[in-house]
């Protein structure tokens, strides 16, 4: 499970489309949750080796340490999921960041880099401006061709702040679902380790009384 999460998160981080949009819009906070989950997945990968060793040795101290490691990974997985959702979902702070970046690009649309960036985002995702075509009109800018549907010729209704956020939300949903599922398993292992410690302590006490 840990290897699967690690692979999926690393794949998401290296997604070229995601990288292009994050770099273009300067919303690098999207990566924070992914980095936390990469760290968490490494802990999850290592933890089973400690579990096997602790169970084999049947030492209470090792079993408690094992419970602590799994509990730690549980909290880190939840933290990573929370950070990722905070920076990729509708209603989160990422929307205003995307909106601000888009407005800055529109205001600098006389610059070739800004124009190319706007065209790339608007054409590839099918959006217009930060909140819609009115962003161009309010700034007295010409509505670019990339803002229009190639079939109907009508301007895209939704702005890029919404469309990009929906794209990020769709990406993060699968990641957080996997992470939370593994977190639940980590908590279960932690509880089972504590139960095993209690059982060993009772057995030791019973043997001592004999």
From TrEMBL:
Pfam family, one: Tetraspanin
Record InterPro entries: Tetraspanin/Peripherin, Tetraspanin_animals, Tetraspanin_EC2_sf
Designated name of the protein: Tetraspanin
Presence of keyword Transmembrane: yes
Lineage top rank: taxon: Eukaryota
UniProt main location, coarse: membrane
Annotated disulfide bonds: 127-160, 128-147
Membrane topology: Multi-pass membrane protein
Location relative to the cell: Membrane
Keyword field: Disulfide bond, Membrane, Transmembrane, Transmembrane helix
TM segment ranges: 32-56, 63-85, 178-200
Family: Belongs to the tetraspanin (TM4SF) family.
Listed GO CC annotations: membrane
């Amino acid at each position: 499970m840990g290897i699967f999460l690690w692979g999926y998160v690393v794949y998401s981080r290296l997604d070229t489309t995601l990288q292009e949009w994050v770099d273009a819009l300067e919303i690098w906070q999207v990566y924070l949750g992914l980095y936390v989950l990469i760290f968490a997945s490494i802990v999850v990968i290592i933890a089973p080796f400690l579990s096997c060793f602790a169970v084999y040795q049947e030492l209470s101290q090792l079993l408690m340490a094992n419970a602590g490691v799994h509990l730690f990974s549980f909290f880190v997985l939840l933290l990573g999921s929370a950070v990722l959702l905070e920076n990729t979902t509708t209603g989160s702070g990422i929307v205003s960041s995307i909106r601000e970046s888009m407005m800055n690009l529109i205001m600098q649309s006389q610059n070739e880099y800004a124009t190319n960036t706007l065209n790339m985002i608007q054409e590839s995702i099918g959006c217009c401006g930060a909140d819609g075509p009115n962003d161009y009109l309010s700034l007295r800018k010409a509505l670019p061709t990339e803002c229009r549907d190639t079939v109907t010729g009508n301007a895209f209704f939704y702005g890029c702040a919404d469309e990009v956020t929906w794209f990020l939300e769709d990406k993060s949903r699968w990641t957080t679902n996997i992470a939370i599922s593994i977190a639940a398993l980590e908590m279960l292992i932690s509880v089972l380790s504590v139960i095993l410690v209690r059982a060993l302590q009772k057995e030791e006490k019973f043997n001592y009384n004999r």
